[in-house]
């Protein structure tokens, strides 16, 4: 787990949505960078993190929390489209800005996919049904919300640089033709983005290595509210 200076505290306050992108530049993917956020944008100087998938009531001494087959949380993506969660990483405390958790030990092979929970302010990567990484993510303000839904990683650019802002955007995973993307960023208190999901650089590098082009990315306003079943089994560590 990587620590930073400013803690993201838990709260039931609803998080702000992602920004939509700016105009398409020369037929290429739109470029984004971090931008300062003001108190007026949030209506408060507190930036909060809800529990989302990582409920502290089910913390364990092991590296992850498992669910019994009959009690798997099921994320509803769309009518008739669901994903079951087999296990999540053990995150007993609210993460700080710039912090991430990564542990794929004991997780069997599987197809990677990404879940973004805007309310919890987290981005998680799964291998099959098992979460292998999670981090606090930056996003934008509500004037230009990014549509929620299902996306596909269309392209990967390890050393991408924004031509619009002349800023580095390392480990970019482009999600749409008009520019929504995930990339490495300076994830700090009081920062946001012009539309992308900004994640810690080390986490972005790991994500870039694990997630191939064609992988699914699900962006939800509130992952907990999208669960059909939230009954959890007794926690335990994977061997």
TrEMBL record:
Give any Gene Ontology cellular component: extracellular region
Instruction: Please list the residue ranges annotated as the L,D-TPase catalytic domain.
Output: 112-220
Q: Does the keyword Transferase apply?
A: yes
Q: Which GO terms describe its biological process?
A: cell wall organization; peptidoglycan-protein cross-linking; regulation of cell shape
Family annotation (InterPro entries):
LD-transpeptidase, LD_TPept_cat_dom, Transpep_catalytic_dom
The cross-references to Pfam families, in alphabetical order and at most eight, read: YkuD (PF03734)
List the active-site residues: 183, 196
Does the record bear Transferase in its keywords? yes
What keywords sit in the KW lines? Answer: Cell shape, Cell wall biogenesis/degradation, Peptidoglycan synthesis, Transferase
Q: In which pathway does it act?
A: Cell wall biogenesis; peptidoglycan biosynthesis
GO MF annotations in UniProt: peptidoglycan L,D-transpeptidase activity; transferase activity
Family to which the UniProt record says this protein belongs? Belongs to the YkuD family.
Protein name per its UniProtKB record: L,D-TPase catalytic domain-containing protein
- The species is uncultured Sphingomonas sp
